[in-house]
Amino acid sequence: MSARGLALFAAAALAAAKAAAAEGEPRVLELEDGRRIEYVLYRHAPDAHARTPAAALAPDSALNAARLLNLHLSTGDLEEAAALSNAPRRRFEVLAEYRRDVGEEQFKRVFAQYLDPANRLLAEIAIGKHRLLVWELRVAGATPAPLAALYFVEVEGKYLLDDVPGETRALLRRLLVEMRAGRLRP
Question: How far apart are CA 68 and CA 46, in angstroms?
Fold first, then answer.
């Protein structure tokens, strides 16, 4: 194969991989009691959370909403972070209380972990308009590396931190529990 043919083949393979990631992989988790959780798994590059996007950040996807949220939190900007929630007043109160408990610097450090390229974005899991983003926090130093997650929901074309309990969020929580137990692989 010529160099041009190889380059075209590589470009086609990359486009196919991007299309597959954009479509997601439908999956079903069979629970011990016979219930089933149907979801879609999206894969991103492991460092997708740490990349600087070409355009200005907007909460137009769960990943971009997470980037924006964690940028605000890693600088201590509670107001802007809380505005990215579907329950902003409650989110602000929770964040302010956590910051009081751990101190300003520890607060910023905790949320900066989500942007650290040493950590790995494992999966985006979708059920309808709800999303769960799961990271493996390698910088925490624990073995095995702990899994951390954020829940989002699409509201009028914007992804917001999902701070309102509900059935779909409970299903996503169950999927996270299964991942942490090693019974669900991304």
Answer: 18
